[in-house]
Amino acid sequence: HPKTLQPCMYDMVTKRYFFNAGTGQFKYEYTFDTLEYIESTGAQWIDTGIATTSNDFGFTLDAMPLTSSDTYPIGSSDGDKRFFGIRSNSSSVFAYGWQWYKSSGASQSYVNIKTQMSLNWLNSKQVSIGNDVSELQDAVIDNGRNISLFGVSGGLLWKGRIYRATISNDYQVVADYIPVRKLDGTVCMYDFISGEFKVNAGSGAVVAG
Question: Fewer CB within 10 Å, N side or C side of the chain?
């Protein structure tokens, strides 16, 4: 369990943890410490290795923007402005590739606020920022480029914190990332689905939180 560190089973569908109902303890292999978040200073990003090969991809993201600059916490691009991802700044949110734009007004700044964002999660054709939910228009996201965390295909790097990130393709969860510190000290994201660590592909070092 990410907080109690007790060995257990996690159900990706119901998002519930199931603990030992018997006596004694399970044996398990310990390979990392869980973190609350990892933070990019605007120079770090993570390549998920998952390419947007259809218009059915989506994600949920628990994140905190630390700047109002025009950058992306998650997404992909083929270099021709075919973006998959949400751009957030102090008073506006964009879902590029989905022909969607929302100006929330300066009174609804997302900077320094932990916020849940989602885009077409489980092919819902919806976008949400906090408690605001809107329907999406036609998507153009099948660009074949890998989805990045803290940026868009390694560009437009984002300064902020990510607490958790989950990617879906159609109605299937294909990646579920939590921030961790490996036993060798590397701060990165761990994918519950693949069992792989995803490390910084940019310069400098991500910040452990």
Answer: N
Q: Is the dihedral of CA 95, 207, 15, 191 positive or negative?
A: positive
CA 199 to chain centroid, in Å, comes to: 14
B/e letters for 140-174, b = 16+ CB within 10 Å, e = fewer, are bbbbebebbbbbbbbebbbbbbbbbbbbbbeeebb
Quick one: 175 exposed, middle or buried, by C-beta within 10 A (0-12, 13-18, 19+)?
A: buried
pLDDT-based confidence at residue 180 (cuts at 50, 70, 90)? very high
Q: Averaged over 21-39, what is the pLDDT?
A: 84
* Mean pLDDT in residue range 31-60: 91
CA distance 16 to 34: 18
